Each structure stands twice: as structure tokens, then as C-alpha cells.
Amino acid sequence: MRKNSVAIASVLKPVKDPRAYFRFGFSLRETNKYEINIIGFSSKSEPPEGDIHFQTLFSKRRTHPKRLLVSWAFLVKIWKIRPEILIVTTYELLPVSVLAKWILKYKLVYDVQENYILNISQNRTVGGFATWITKEIVGIFESCSRPFVDHFFLAERCYLEELPKFRPATLLENRFFNPVVSIQSYQLSTERPLRFIISGTITEVYGTLTGIQWFKEFKKRRPNSELHVIGHFPKQSFLEKLKEEMPFDGLTLEIASSPIPYERILKAYHQADIVLLPYWQIESIRDKVPSKLYESLALGKICLFSPNPKWDEIVKSFGGGFAVDFRDFSGIPNVVLELDNRSFFTKNPDVSLTWKSQETEFLDIIASFVK
């Protein structure tokens, strides 16, 4: 039986990105109806896995001049693949995707993982004149492409309000792709070291430096505590800031300029006791739900997070952690008391934390394009 061709494309996201590969890719493969090509960032050639094939679009640092040529390279790839459905996960590929749609006649889906214009304004990834020009480019790409997009996937509930022109739309949050662990309520042992983890994108507004500074103060109360920082840093200048806080006893640093394989991050989660989410509560972050929050709860790992009513509601429903003001070191004694005395996971994690709770809706949308 002939299988329908689906391509999922990004520039800087790795080909084994949690959303494109573990969520979308695995779900499509399990139906046995689709041939899947995942196009994205990779520093090495990845062999196919059944009906999932990997195509490297970009392999350099994010500011490398070759990035200017990715649209042409992408056009060549989709011309060869000839997908019936193209899912684009970045604004950067929208113009060429619209152009090729006129010829190849595929259905075009824009998977909106970020509110890019708000992020550029808030997240300190670029500065000065570059901020203005980048926002203008994103705005032009998204607004001009919008009439030609057949469907929008929105990765955050807040995008339903922030991006009202992105319609028709389906909310597909970044919930954990695996089943939840079955776990009994427990208390932390005071007899062994506490193992903390900060993972993912290493940036200032994601609170990496804030979390490290907080942990150093926490360690004065619990000297045998350990911190594992694992992830990738988009900006070299921020790495220099981090180096000012290092090294110190109990810190394991596993960072790189390109994304760390997701399987490696999950392994680090399994070895940790407590996940730190010291995100700054700025406009581009506070209304979103970090995928790491879903991951920590689904894996039965205690989550300490910056004060946020939405996150607090989710975490409290399972007894999986509590809010911490990572800038207020005077609150650390109370954190120690809570960790020593509180029972965690008074309710077992359930399917609402997982991609499985959204999978059917995703597959129904895809199937509607090939009838």
C-alpha cells in the first residue's frame, strides 16, 4: 500500500527534536500510513528508522553565513521528497514553503512553537537595530504567508489569544511523549546528596545563571548537594557570564553550542531528584508552560519553579513541587525545610501530562488532508 508523504522542517531544531521526532514522527509512524521526512539541524548523518527519514538542512553555528542559503537547500530537499503534507516549524522557511506549494500542491501546516515577535522583544537573543529589523522580517514572513497556510498547530495555549489571526488552529502542547511513571508518594532522604538539574536552552531569561547562583547559596545549607547543568547556549556572550560563576564543587556542566541529544537529557533527568525551572517571569515566558514542567512531573521528579499561578496549579494538582523565588536567598532555609519534611506526589501523574492525550487530534488533522 502506498504511504502518504509527510515532511516536518526546521532550521535550528535538531532532526531528533522532541516535538518533531518523538511526538509527531512517532505518532505518524505508528499508523503505518505515512512516510515521514524530518528536515533540520544535525552535525552528523542519521540513518532512517523504519518510515522515518532524516534530512540535514543546516549543521553550522546559528550565525554562520551558510544560513543565508538554507531556503535554497530546503527547496531542493522538498522538491526531491515531494510531500503531500509539509509541516514547517519556523518562520524562516515560510516564504519558500509558500512558493513551492504552488508547484507541488501539498498541504501546508505552520507549527507555531514560539511567538517570535514577542520573543525577539523580550528574550535578549538580539539587540539594538537587529531587534527591530528581525521583528520586521518575522512580521512580513508570517503575515504574507498566513493566507496560504492550511492549518496552524499552536504549542502554547496562550497563543490562542496572542496570535488570533493564526486560524484554523489546533492546540498541541509540548507534553511528555512517553507514558507517565507509576509512583508512590515519597519524601526525600536526608541521608544522601540532593541531585538538582537545570536543562534545555542555556540563556539569561530562562534563568540559568539565576538558578546557579541560587544553588550556590542552597549548597551552604546542604554542602553535599549536586547540580547538573545540561543544554546548549545560543549566545557565546552568555557563556562568558556563566564562567564567572564556575567552577565550584558539586557542579557538573554539560553544555554545547549545538543542541544536546534529547535522549541524553532524559537520562540526566532520571539521575536527578529535583528539576529547577528558574525562568524569568517576563511577558514572553509567564503565560507559557515549559515542556520541562510536564517532563519532570511525568517522570516523578520534584519541580521547583519561579512563582507562576498557571505552573503552580499544574504542579500542585500532583503534589510535585512548589514555587521558589530564586532571587531571594533569604527564603532558602524554608526551601530546605520543605524538601526535608514534605511528601511529594500525593497524586499519581496521569495521562493529562502526556502527548498521548493530544495524539488523536493531531492524527485526525493530518488524515483530513489526505482523504
From TrEMBL:
This is Glycosyltransferase. GO terms for molecular function: glycosyltransferase activity. Residues 191-327 form the Glycosyl transferase family domain. It comes from Mariniradius saccharolyticus AK6. Pfam families: Glycos_transf_1.
